[in-house]
Amino acid sequence: MKQLLYITLLLFCGPGLLAAPYTCRTEAGELQSHIATSGQSITQLTVSGTIDARDLTYISDSLTHLTDIDLRECSIAAYDSRDTYLGNQSRFEANAFPSYTFMGFQSLIAVKLPQSTQAIGSAAFAGCPALTTVEWGDQLQTIGDMAFSGCSALDSPLPATLQHIGEYSFAQCTAYTSLDLEEAPLQSIGANAFQNCTRLSSATLPASLQTIGDKCFAGCSSLTAITLPSNLQKLGESCFAYCTSLTQVEMEQVSLPSLPAYTFDHCTSLTSVAAPQTIERIDEGAFYYCTALVECSLPASLRQIGDYAFAGCSRMIHLTFLPEGLEQIGRWPFYGMRQLYTASIPSTVTYIGDHAFDNCTRLAALMAYPTEPPMLGEAVFCQVPQANCKLGAPDESFELYRTAPQWQEFDIRHFSDKQEVAADNSLQAYFVHETLVIKSTTPMRQVALYTLDGRLVHRGEGETTEWNIDTTPYTGRLFVLSIQMQSGKYHHLKVGR
Q1: Which residues make Cβ contacts (< 8 Å) with residue 367, sequence separation at least 6?
Q2: How far apart are CA 65 and CA 106, in angstroms?
Q3: Which domains does the chain have, with CATH numbers?
């Protein structure tokens, strides 16, 4: 009877006793010799001394029920072997946490890394859904590809020592709500690094950052604002795609040659944006289906707008932000702007691609400033009510537009015939000697002055009720003045000195 009672107590109490915290000190390669064959039941492990890849392989293979592991008092030694460990590796660097060590540990909750850890290998903690806390040490520089991918409960702040974050390193880490790397000497963030971190609402990036990979923040549906650092040299494609809460983007001071493809794809809360001052191209689909976008500031350096660049921006009313210097407009770039009422084509544009204005069914006024009608692809104005849409053309080019295919379908007017003034005298434009004075009872946002042949000679921006333009440097006596009001409404009028 006593013997039966003893066996019963072992069955019920044994696992609890085996799961008690286990602490040991070891030398490299000797951890297994300190732990009894019951190691499989250990849930809390504290190790001091020196370990290497052999010890971490033992933990990876045999201590799969760990919930807590404390390695703060350890150092990781380099190890070379003819055998292979952890992902078929045979060479392991000192102070580097090996790849795949804790991948798929379903019960792991908290990890304290060795204080001297400098790098975390690929997928080292990937697929640990219960992991909430990591103590990084004070020397960590590199987090490898997929290192914490799928750690959906992890929300430990990243260390201020980081220099590199690998691809997919924190993908699907849905517990993160903020990311503050402002003080880190971070140089690069890999592709998809924070993809689908759906609760991430803020991210602060350091001035040192030079590279952000493709889809880095794609699917971060709670992210509301982002500032790109001025030293950034490379921005990946689709970097902020489907960031559906994004309302504020600061990137004017970034020196990039182009805005990459699908950068803001389906950023459906973005209402306005100012592009980097150095870009020469807006690549394919950069603002694809940004359905709230109504205002965009583009630099004078811009030469090309790619296919589908603004397609689906269905709330856009005025397409008057295309800058002088723009030469090429691709295919379908303005497709589906169903609220578009006015648009302006800069004088430098030479080509407009297939279906560029397709489905812009409310377009009522188009100002075409090129003296030579731009070459057109197929069905550029498909579904535009051209017969009822006024096309302003340079006086000297009127006949060219009137006989050019597709252009000739518009209700074509001379620039010099285009006059629109407020009936209540709330807007006035007149000359005092060589100075053009523009006054309004409500704030104006932008003024642009063109010669009759469509050349832009002056542009001014900033909210004010009065502009004074010195026209001494400009030849000719007649000009076309385009004024954008604070409300977004446009006025166009002919002025003469």
Answers
A1: 320, 342, 343, 344, 345, 391, 392, 482, 492
A2: 8
A3: 17-119+129-136 (3.80.10.10), 157-250 (3.80.10.10), 253-417 (3.80.10.10), 427-496 (2.60.40.3080)
Sign of CA dihedral 492, 367, 358, 356: negative
Q: Are 217 and 203 in contact (CB under 8 A)?
A: yes
Alpha-carbon 436 to chain mean position = 42
DSSP for 117-149, please give it: --EE-TTTTTT-TT--EEE--S---EE-TTTTT
Dihedral over Cα of 351, 256, 307, 316: its sign: negative
Cα–Cα distance for residue pair 81/72, rounded to 1 Å: 25
Question: Do 438 and 447 meet the contact criterion of CB atoms below 8 Å apart?
Answer: yes
> Percentage of residues in the chain with pLDDT exceeding 90?
69
Q: What is the pTM of this model?
A: 0.82
Task: State pLDDT tens for residues 95-150.
Answer: 999 999 999 999 999 999 999 999 999 999 999 999 999 999 999 999 999 999 99
Residue 233: which residues within 8 A CB-CB, separation 6 or more? 210, 211, 255, 256
Query: Mean pLDDT over all residues of the chain?
Result: 90
Residues of the chain with pLDDT under 70: 1-20, 36-40, 84-85, 87-88, 416-425, 452-454, 488
